[in-house]
DNA sequence: TGCTCCCGCCATGGG
DNA sequence: CCCATGGCGGGAGCA
């Protein structure tokens, strides 16, 4: 395939097809023996509040002293009461699912090891539909973190190819002049703030964009050696999610300011499609897909949600993360602290008096689930490619994990509360402010001494605060290793027009209670909602599916920026000329309006405001 | 009310 | 026809 930038990428080489064993962490199974004496408790909906002094109740008591998040994790794990119901729904989120997925694989896989991924196995072990796995895989594919081997089979590359991928994407993005296009769109939107004849102007503007910047079609950007296998994959008509994902990342890579709103992204992406697609349904669909992609990218910690306040109102947004260190300095990546670790450290070890809603701490749930999943794998036969649906025997070990977490938490709380005293975390609502979704503690979680036989990698893409389960070869009992915090990162300044930032108070994405899965949820009426046949999907007119939908008005163009900001997609080179270089005759120079403080200037790496 | 995004229908295309 | 894949948008949940 030939990328738009003219670089010729190597046609499909032979990617060594490793024999069909799914990648599994090489872990011992002694833990199973350790926990073998414990009997698997019966999951119950109604567990008496007062129980006999059993290991379970013991652990419960321990957990009761922990933060709500940990308690939540516990309840999920045990399937206790309504909490379990709520949380099991949270597991469905794409971001969390991606977390769980990523936690299964090392950032930098050993090439000597079989890194195959079997979709069936993954879907089964994560207990999700294959459809969701496809969403994740498509985004990961777009970053060349995985590549397809064959039907149902992928190869895991991890972040090893990320630097190359991002460099390529940036190059393509620059050649596509995305930076200029975004500037035009932003300027256009700004003009509309003053002049509210939005509808017509939008169309006119988009047509202008077509005329000038308009790169119509863009293929999937490949890397040498990471080509796609399997005819059906490449023959699919547009592969929009993969391509969209790449374009989306490109926008971050070339954008100045490094804030990319979803609507701007959607406009650009739509602009590259047929003009006919530019109806509001298309826009809405594009936005939905961008949410999906953004969730995966968030799980990868390449972007991060923040809130942005524009002139027209406060909008949800995303704040970028330290992609450059995460992707470029790959060698040190696994040892490198995460920029967002502070977030979850604070969440996890929040002071008892601090009221927190579960909705604000997906990361904690992610964390716990990642542990559980890892543990499940650990407790499963490690050499068997057999699909693992569930493993009740993991229950004791999960209890041990949670106990370990709680212990660490309890140990940490005193230390953390000390840190809080010196912590500066104003939650400003001032007009030019950015806060990370969650407050961050500067405290550094001490790493427990690794026992011999510890896993050789730390799946950092797991929850920002990553407990890493260690095999129990020589040390009994589980270990949770928390990656230390990152050093403050110097932030480049850049101009943002007309944006203010606020703290959403949300670490990852949204609130917890999602709809139930499959037929159990409130919206489970698939047959009743069966859509009428819509004919060919290639038609430009939007599909008419559920007639009941007519009660809902068609979407109006989202006014919100729904901004995504990246922080280190940029190399210094790409610090754009876009701000000063009109791309075409109709390009309007974008004034550096209302820009006293750049988002990142106002946001140090710990998410606290400089005041 | 609008944002967010889960969910699953069903189109597509290879075998 | 079967199956893997994934486009797509309804609508639930929530702020």
TrEMBL record:
Might you report a single GO cellular component term?
Answer: RNA polymerase II transcription regulator complex
- Give start-end ranges for the coiled-coil region(s): none
Locate the region Disordered.
420-442, 501-563
SUPFAM superfamilies, A to Z: Winged helix' DNA-binding domain
Biological process, per Gene Ontology? lymphangiogenesis; motor neuron axon guidance; negative regulation of DNA-templated transcription; positive regulation of transcription by RNA polymerase II; sprouting angiogenesis
User: What does the UniProt entry say about where the protein is found?
Assistant: Nucleus
Q: Predominant location of this chain?
A: nucleus
What is any Pfam family matched here? WHD_E2F_TDP
Question: Which molecular function term from Gene Ontology is one that the record holds?
Answer: DNA-binding transcription factor activity, RNA polymerase II-specific
Q: Reply yes or no: does the keyword Ligase apply.
A: no
Every copy of the E2F/DP family winged-helix DNA-binding domain together lies at 89-158, 236-322
Q: In which domain of life is the source organism classified?
A: Eukaryota
Summary of the function given for this chain in its UniProt record: Atypical E2F transcription factor that participates in various processes such as angiogenesis and polyploidization of specialized cells. Mainly acts as a transcription repressor that binds DNA independently of DP proteins and specifically recognizes the E2 recognition site 5'-TTTC[CG]CGC-3'. Directly represses transcription of classical E2F transcription factors such as e2f1. Acts as a regulator of S-phase by recognizing and binding the E2-related site 5'-TTCCCGCC-3' and mediating repression of G1/S-regulated genes.
The UniProt similarity line reads: Belongs to the E2F/DP family.
Protein known as: Transcription factor E2F8
What is the species listed in this Swiss-Prot or TrEMBL entry? Denticeps clupeoides (denticle herring)
Lineage in the entry? Eukaryota, Metazoa, Chordata, Craniata, Vertebrata
Gene that encodes it: E2F8
């Amino acid at each position: 395939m030939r990328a738009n930038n003219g670089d010729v990428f190597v046609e499909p080489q032979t990617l060594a097809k490793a024999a069909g064993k799914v990648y599994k962490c090489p872990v011992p199974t002694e833990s199973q023996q350790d926990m073998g004496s414990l009997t698997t408790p019966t999951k119950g909906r109604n567990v008496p509040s007062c129980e006999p002094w059993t290991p379970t109740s013991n652990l419960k008591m321990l957990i009761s002293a922990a933060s709500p998040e940990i308690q939540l994790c516990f309840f999920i794990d045990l399937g206790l009461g309504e909490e379990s119901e709520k949380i099991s729904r949270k597991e469905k989120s794409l971001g969390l699912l991606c977390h769980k997925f990523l936690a299964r694989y090392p950032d930098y896989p050993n090439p000597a090891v079989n890194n195959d991924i079997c979709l069936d196995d993954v879907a089964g072990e994560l207990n999700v539909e294959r459809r969701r796995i496809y969403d994740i895989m498509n985004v990961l594919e777009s970053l060349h973190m995985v590549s397809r081997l064959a039907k149902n089979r992928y190869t895991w590359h991890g972040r090893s190819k990320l630097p190359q991928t991002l460099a390529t994407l940036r190059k393509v993005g620059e050649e596509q002049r995305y930076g200029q296009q975004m500037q035009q769109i932003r300027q256009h939107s700004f003009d509309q703030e003053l002049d509210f004849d939005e509808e017509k102007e939008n169309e006119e503007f988009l047509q202008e964009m077509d005329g000038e910047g308009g790169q119509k079609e863009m293929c999937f950007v490949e890397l040498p050696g990471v080509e796609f296998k399997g005819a059906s994959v490449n023959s699919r008509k547009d592969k929009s999610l993969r391509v969209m994902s790449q374009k989306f990342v490109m926008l971050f890579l070339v954008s100045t300011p490094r804030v990319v709103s979803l609507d701007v992204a959607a406009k650009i992406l739509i602009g590259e499609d047929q003009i006919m697609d530019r109806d509001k349904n298309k826009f809405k669909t594009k936005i939905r897909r961008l949410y999906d992609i953004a969730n995966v990218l968030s799980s990868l910690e390449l972007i991060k949600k923040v809130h942005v306040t524009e002139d027209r109102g406060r909008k949800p947004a995303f704040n970028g993360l330290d992609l450059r260190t995460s992707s470029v300095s790959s060698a040190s990546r696994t040892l490198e602290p995460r920029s967002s670790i502070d977030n979850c450290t604070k969440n996890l070890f929040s002071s008892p008096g601090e009221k927190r809603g579960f909705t604000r701490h997906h990361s904690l749930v992610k964390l716990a689930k990642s542990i559980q999943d890892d543990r499940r794998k650990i407790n499963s036969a490690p050499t068997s490619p057999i699909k693992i649906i569930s493993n009740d025997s993991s229950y004791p070990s999960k209890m041990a994990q949670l106990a370990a977490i709680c212990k660490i938490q309890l140990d940490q709380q005193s230390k953390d509360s000390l840190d809080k005293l010196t912590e500066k975390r104003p939650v400003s609502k001032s007009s030019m402010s950015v806060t990370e979704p969650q407050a961050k503690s500067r405290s550094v979680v001490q790493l427990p001494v690794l026992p011999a036989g510890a896993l050789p990698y730390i799946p950092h893409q797991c929850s920002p605060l990553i407990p890493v389960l260690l095999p129990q070869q020589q040390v009994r009992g589980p270990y949770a290793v928390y990656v230390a915090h990152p050093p403050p990162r110097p932030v480049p300044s850049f101009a943002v027009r007309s944006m203010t930032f606020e703290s959403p108070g949300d670490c990852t994405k949204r609130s917890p209670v999602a709809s139930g899965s499959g037929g159990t949820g409130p919206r489970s009426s698939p047959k009743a909602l069966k859509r009428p046949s819509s004919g060919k999907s290639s038609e430009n007119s939007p599909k008419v599916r559920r007639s009941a939908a007519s009660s809902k008005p068609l979407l109006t163009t989202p006014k919100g920026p729904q901004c995504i900001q990246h922080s280190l997609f940029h190399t210094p080179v790409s610090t754009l000329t876009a701000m000063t270089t009109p791309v075409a005759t109709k390009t309007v120079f974008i004034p550096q309006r209302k820009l006293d403080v750049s988002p990142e200037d106002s946001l140090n790496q710990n998410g606290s405001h400089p005041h």
